[in-house]
Specification:
Layout lengths: L6 E10 L2 E9 L4 E6 L20 E6 L18 H15 L4 E6 L1 H12 L4 E7 L6 H8 L9 H8 L8 H12 L4 H19 L13 H13 L5 H8 L7 E6 L7 H11 L4 E6 L9 H19 L2
Parallel strand pairs: 3-4, 3-5, 5-6, 6-7, 7-8
Antiparallel strand pairs: 1-2, 2-4
Length: 314
């Protein structure tokens, strides 16, 4: 695909609670409808995400979830819960008058999509996910305590916890970061934002030089990730356990062999216990967590193209 899919239109949808969601539509308005679910929670959509899709085949729906991207207000935590995000997806579908659609997403976006497809199985045609995050106690401990990724990335974890040295107590770690992200001193706020995001960056792309992440959305991303993590992702794990077996759409999950944000072993354990035969799971050799990794990007593009071909054959 040499060119990005063309923009059809963009809208801000009022979903209540003071939130207006940014929805941009691309590609062929008569093509296969596909909803892109970004990760984070809090990352928002970026233009590079469009490179996943062939605009001649898909009607691409790029939705910035509550508090993210171009949605308003940016970084808003009030009325921002998992159930709110799930209800928003249905509101968008109804507003577009789409009876059913495909889902594509990574990390927390894959988590959200998996729950949605289990809650509304008749609304999902097919789906491709990567870097699936399992929001269990194990998944959270792996990311933020001294019992998981910290053992593989000791130096990076020391930098992450230098501002909040309570590695044996995640709640205190989160409390300190919450205070730091909202500190009245702009330099202190900046220090906490960078420490939070660089820890995740060190796991997403291990071995790469850490960069100072400067954007208007940096603070909102850190705050939203902390908001969800400190609230145990608002019951997402329980819903995944209850609903995964009810998924009816063909589902492809790709997990990177070197994904240190969402390690494959946690994902595999979950799918062995709560998955179903309709879920096709594979580990991508030399794959990392995100699409900045060429290996993962290529595999995801291929899976999405395969999903489209399979739908054409029906």
């Amino acid at each position: 695909m040499s060119e990005l899919p063309a923009l059809i239109r963009r809208d801000w949808l009022d979903v209540g609670g003071g939130h207006k969601l940014h929805l941009a539509q691309y590609g062929d308005p008569n093509g296969i409808p596909v909803l892109y679910l970004h990760g984070g929670p809090g990352a928002g959509c970026v233009s590079d995400d469009l490179m996943l899709f062939d605009g001649d085949i898909f009607h691409i729906l790029m939705l910035d979830q509550r508090g993210t991207g171009r949605s308003k207000p940016l970084g808003e935590l009030e009325h921002n819960t998992l159930l709110s995000l799930l209800k928003d997806l249905e509101k968008v579908r109804v507003w577009l008058n789409i009876s059913s659609w495909c889902l594509v997403g990574g990390s927390f976006g894959a988590t959200l999509g998996l729950i949605y497809s289990g809650a509304f199985p008749e609304r999902v045609l097919s789906q491709v996910f990567w870097g699936l995050f399992i929001p269990s106690e194990n998944g959270t401990n792996w990311l933020y305590s001294n019992k998981g990724a910290a053992n593989l990335f000791a130096t990076e974890y020391l930098a992450f916890t230098a501002l909040a040295p309570y590695t044996s107590n995640i709640e205190r770690l989160f409390e300190t970061y919450r205070a730091g992200l909202n500190h009245e001193n702009v330099d202190i706020r900046h220090e906490f934002i960078q420490a939070w995001l660089q820890w995740e960056q060190s796991l997403s792309m291990p071995g790469c030089d850490l960069v100072c992440i400067e954007s208007t959305s940096s603070k909102s991303l850190a705050e939203l990730e902390l908001h969800y993590a400190s609230h145990q992702y608002f019951g997402a794990y329980q819903l995944m356990r209850q609903l995964s077996a009810g998924i009816q759409a063909p589902t492809r999950i790709l997990q990177g062999e070197l994904d240190w944000v969402c390690p494959s072993q946690i994902t595999e354990n979950f799918l062995l216990e709560f998955g179903s035969n309709i879920i096709n799971y594979s580990v991508i050799k030399s794959g990392y967590h995100g699409l900045a990794n060429d290996k993962m990007f290529g595999e995801v593009v291929y899976a999405i193209r395969e999903m489209a071909n399979n739908m054409k054959d029906k």
